[in-house]
Amino acid sequence: MFKNVLLALVLAGSSSVALAQRLVDYEITITNITPGQTFTPQLVVTHPEEIRIFEAGLPASESLEILAEGGDTEPLSNDLFNEAYDVATIGALLPPGETTSIVVAGQPGLGYISIAAMMIPTNDTFMALNRVKLPRGGSMSFTVPAYDAGTEYNDQNCANIPGPRCGGVGYSAEPGEGYVHIGNGFHDLGQTGEDGSEILAPQIYDWRNSVATITVRRMNN
Fold first, then answer.
1. How would you classify residue 109: left for phi > 0, otherwise alpha for psi between -120 and 50, otherwise beta?
2. Closest by alpha carbon to 212, among 133, 102, 115?
C-alpha cells in the first residue's frame, strides 16, 4: 500500500458542492520544520464549516487511521469528495526543511481548509491544520502541531513503521490509545525490540511541537 502512495500523482477533483458555490483559488504552501521527520503525501481539503477530518479527544475514523499509519490519503479523499469544495493530494514526500505548494479552490470568508499528512518514521503520528476558515483576501500563516491518531501504540519499532527508513507494516488492526491527541514525540525505548527489530532513537527522530508552517494565500481572482 505504502509503495503505491509514494508513486501517487496529484489527486484532485471538484465536488458537486463546489458547483453551487462561488469559489476562488488559494495557494497553499507547506514547510516541514522538523529536524528528522518526513511528511508523506499531503492531503489538502477545502470544505464547508460542518466538515471535520478529525476532532481531538475523539476516536479517529478508519480513513484517518489509514492515513496516519500508512500515509495513504485516498480513503479520506473519497470520504470527503462529495461534500468538499476541493480535495487534492500533493503526491511527493516532504523532507525536513523543504517546502511545497499547491493551488486549490475554496469559498472566501465562509469556507474552511484542512490539511493532513503522516509523519515518517512514526507509528501513527500526523501533522495537521484542522478546520481553519479561509481568508477573504491576502494570506494567513499557521504553525501547526503533530497529532497522534491513537490507533497504534508508539513503540518506535521499525517493524511497525512504513516508509523508506524502516520498511515496516503500515496500516494494521492493532490497538492504540483510542482517541486523537497531541503527539508527544519520541522517547528512549532502547535499541532493539524483543524480535530484534530496530527501535528508533529520539536523538534523531524526536520533535517538539510545532512541526510545520502553512500559508494560505488568496490568489488574484
1. left
2. 115
Mean pLDDT of 182-197: 85
Q: Which of 199, 121, 109, 132 is nearest to 161 (CA)?
A: 121
pLDDT the model gives residue 174: 78
Q: Residue 101: which of 27, 166, 175 has the closest Cα?
A: 27
Residues recorded for the chain: 221
Instruction: Report the distance separating Cα 53 and Cα 95, nearest Å.
Output: 24
pTM here?
0.88
C-alpha cell of 70? 500508512
State the DSSP string of 160-172: G--STTT----S-
Nearest to 71, CA basis, from 112, 111, 18, 126 = 126
What class does CATH assign to 2-218? mainly beta
